[in-house]
Every structure is written in C-alpha cells, then in structure tokens.
C-alpha cells in the first residue's frame, strides 16, 4: 500500500572532466542525490550518479522496477549502465537528451525506453508521474509522487532557484516556463527533492518566481 512507500536518499560523489578541455586539470568534484522510491519489496531508482555500488547496496534485495533518469548530464548518468547491469533492470531517459547520454556512453548502449510527458510508474501501490520540464536540458523531466506529496526535480528546481542554463542547448526562459507551469502549480506543501543539495517545498520557492522570471526578460 502507498502508506508503506518511502523515499531514500543516497549521496554519491564523483569528479567530472579531469584532464578534459574546459575543466580544471583536477576536474570538478560534485555530490549528487540518487533517490530510491519504494517499500520493503520494490524500488524505483531516480538517477544513476557516480557510484553504482552504493546504490546497489541501498536497494538491497528489493525488486528494482527501473532506473528513471531526470536528464542526460554526465553526473546523472555516468553510473547508469553499471547500475542497470548490476540490478538487471531497465533505463529510462527522455529522447531529447540522448545526445547528452551519447557524450558519456556513446551510441552502442542506449537507454531501454523513452520517457514521455505524463508517463506513469507504479511502485508500492503509488504512482510517479513524469513531467517534462525542459530548460536545463531539452529532455529534463521531474517526477511527481502525489501519494508522498513529493516532487523529484532533478536539476530543474533547487532550494533557492532554478537549475543552470549555461550551455548552448539550455534555455533560461524555457526553464522558468517549466517551473511556473508544471511545478509551481503543485500543492504548496509538496516537498521538492532535487538532484543536488537540500530539500525544499513548492511553497518556499513560489514567492521567488517573479524575480527569477525578470532575469529571463
């Protein structure tokens, strides 16, 4: 039943870009949140960052129903193949971010299924609904677990503001539109669990939208 449902946080650590152009020689250290939604028997995994073994340990002997990727950036998918193989489960990614996946993993091994806006995933008697929230990347998505009053926002919405849009494929106005129309319309008490950092709520972030939107003008 949905009452048995819980969300667990696994913080993983990695270093991105060491020795690559555009990065400092030592790379950029980065912590990521991997979220596990489930009960004692089943689990859905949100993102696959840095350390497949840590996530496998957290999943334990539960049945892994799938790995849902919020977007294609390296730090969210770099452990995806190893994790999918270790758990013998499927990978889901929005097709608009396949080009980013291929930057990390190449084109020989692609995610198993495409995520689409409105796609639902059942776990422990509850549903996660996929919300396409482009802007940070073209294929960014968030997942809404209404039974838990929780949004898993990837890098779309953080405590204190929207995600980064420094890449040529990003769009700050589109990101503000995604947040305004898809996320801030959720109940104010909704907990927001992002891809990095601390949790927040829809109610805490809503008053700032006007200031954020002004930056998009």
TrEMBL record:
**Residue intervals of the Metallo-beta-lactamase domain:** 31-196
Give the domain of life.
Answer: Bacteria
Enumerate the Pfam families for this protein: Lactamase_B (PF00753)
Q: Which InterPro entries match?
A: MBL_Glyoxalase_II, Metallo-B-lactamas, RibonucZ/Hydroxyglut_hydro
Ordered alphabetically, the record's keywords are: Hydrolase
Q: Does the keyword Cell membrane apply?
A: no
The UniProt GO MF terms for this protein read:
hydrolase activity
Asked whether the keyword Hydrolase is assigned, the reply is yes
Q: What is this protein called?
A: Glyoxylase-like metal-dependent hydrolase (Beta-lactamase superfamily II)
